[in-house]
Specification:
single chain; mainly alpha
Length: 74
């Protein structure tokens, strides 16, 4: 993959982690809210996977934030 894609995944992952922590959730708690295993959240936050738009939508709903919050500074 290109460097741009890798940078995007890592930056998005950092945003997910930041917002999750601000809302006081663990990875396990967030994953339970969206019916995923906690490893999925870990992989998203570490930038190891390219998350689907729908997963980001689910995370945003669980954290009660706008989807756009994940893309600030990306």
């Amino acid at each position: 993959m290109s460097d741009d894609v890798e940078l995007f995944k890592k930056t998005l992952g950092k945003q997910v982690a930041r917002l999750r922590k601000e809302k006081g959730f663990t990875q396990a708690e967030l994953s339970a809210l969206i019916n995923k295993d906690y490893q999925s959240i870990s992989r998203i936050e570490s930038g190891k996977i390219n998350s689907s738009c729908y997963i980001i939508f689910q995370i945003a709903n669980a954290l009660e934030v706008e989807v756009s919050e994940f893309f600030k500074n990306v």
